[in-house]
From TrEMBL:
Residue spans crossing the bilayer: 85-112, 118-139
Membrane topology reported for the UniProt record: Multi-pass membrane protein
Primary subcellular site in the record, as a coarse category: membrane
Membership in a protein family: Belongs to the DoxX family.
Keyword Cell membrane: yes
Name of the protein: DoxX family protein
Keywords assigned: Cell membrane, Membrane, Transmembrane, Transmembrane helix
Amino acid sequence: MNTIVNGLISLFDLIAKLVPDWLIALLARGAVAYTFWSSGRTKVSGFLDISQSTYFLFEHEYKVPLIPHELAAHLATYAEHLFPILLVFGLFTRFAALSLLGMTVVIQLFVYPDAWNVHMWWAIALLYLIRHGAGQASLDRLFWRR
């Protein structure tokens, strides 16, 4: 039994050495950026013209509390374009990740509360980026060397 456990520990150690932290951060950035960017692109026609269907969704389906649906449509749409770009380049990564985590919480609580099994993966990736930063393959590293 010890041989099997030791073999598994060695395998995990090897995998840890082969998969660098910067690759995990890059994959987390790319996965979250793709998700939010894709969502943002469904809200516009052309470059950044918010479509009428987006306003309709924010008024009748999403019903985000506290702010008017027109403002919510604009904020969400522009956030879903800006923050994924920042994540892809690894620029202001922690700020972008924190902003998208806030959006994720709002979506989870007010828009699609039954979709926690999807949102938890976004949250885990975003929390990783907030905790560890963008990694070595990023503009954050180039500019600030942290």
